[in-house]
Fold:
Amino acid sequence: MFASEGDTIWIPAQGTTIARMTDLASRVEAALDATYLDYLKFISIPSISSQPEHDPDLVVSAETYAGWLRELGCPNVKVVREGGAPAVLAHFPAPEGKPTICLYAHHDVQPTGDLSLWTTPPFEPQERGGRLYGRGPADDKGCAMSHIAMLRAFNGKPPVGVKLFIEGEEEYGSTSLGAVIERHRDMLEADLFIIADGGTWEVGVPAVTTTLRGVVSAVVTVETLKTGVHSGEFGGVVPDALTTLCRLLATLHDEKGDVAIEGLLKTPAPDLDYPEERLVSETGKLDGVEFIGSGTFVERMWTRPTASVLAIDTTSVANASNTLIPKATAKVSVRIAPGENAPHALQCLIDHLLTHASWGAKVSIGETDAGQPGIAPFEGPLCQVYAEALTEGFGVAPVESGTGGSIPMIAEFMEAFPNAEIACTGVADPDAHMHGIDESVELADWRKYTLANALFLEKLGA
Structure:
């Protein structure tokens, strides 16, 4: 590559012509146009993996995706289920002497939340102002459909080997991932894994995620009484469980908002500027609300632990009476730093909850979960070519970044395939509202991302 005044120019490999690359770009654009209606159809399937009533939708989603691969002439397509949600595995064999790339995405999505808050129904996708709105266009059906469009641009005959793993339970903790890897290793093993569940640095600027926080969670129950009693008669003598639970949850942070759970790891963060105005815009922080924690924004979001109370089970306001509540339950989630060990972090959380309750309250731990953090260096000869392709596709070089989110399967992949290179990319930009109301994707970036991946395969094949 040669750079001139900030521009990056791709120099084709020997025997590759500029006309050939222009032809590829035209084929990608045509494939994207042809794939758009399928993209809308895919989003319309409510494949919510965390809600059992949507299991039939997950089956429809997986079979629909597998059908598109079969239409492309893929000789080996499977819908597999190893104790969890259905996943799609496929393999386009490599021409002799060419490497094999494994493309990952997931077809399951998060619950919608309060439907009344959506501008348009989440499973009736709508394009507005160059963005596609609905549940899943950014996380992660956009990447899954980008894979389909790219393969269509090659008419089902990619110039290198291509394997696909379209998971069906990423949003539910990838509970059967280990079994899928163990029983279908031949369908996954590759020279490089493109984990297409990341995002862009900003609209129009690609990113490669190199560090990811892990996540541990625990359901904690506080009990103070055998039964509810009159708050007027006994208030001030015995504690109610909800007040006691609130006091326990408050011990998760210090006065600055830093996590106060002992034993958790902090790791260094890259020296990247994250402007305050951008963070205000992305979070929707209300005027007057302070930022919490210490250190740079990048440290707080990417390489330090954080604790959140996700839910509380107790008497609702509508059903409240003047009664001291005997029992209350909460779910606590802790994001853990890259390099941390998830079982160790979970034990730190449990120990904290069991030892910090006020007034001798009875504390018990229910359901727990743990997902490993990840450190995925973007390095190696294939990653170098991929960086060139991302630069060519977007017109600007990718940013190597971290994320506060968790993709525990990256750590499992790196452990299972230690000799493979790995690149975590995607189409979700800072305005995507992943997991939130009015999730969306910038369609121009969806197109650029597809072109970049097609260029990557073309470069390797050349």
Remarks:
- The mean pLDDT is 93.
- The chain has two domains: 2-212+374-461, 214-267+304-371.
- The first strand starts at residue 2 and ends at 4.
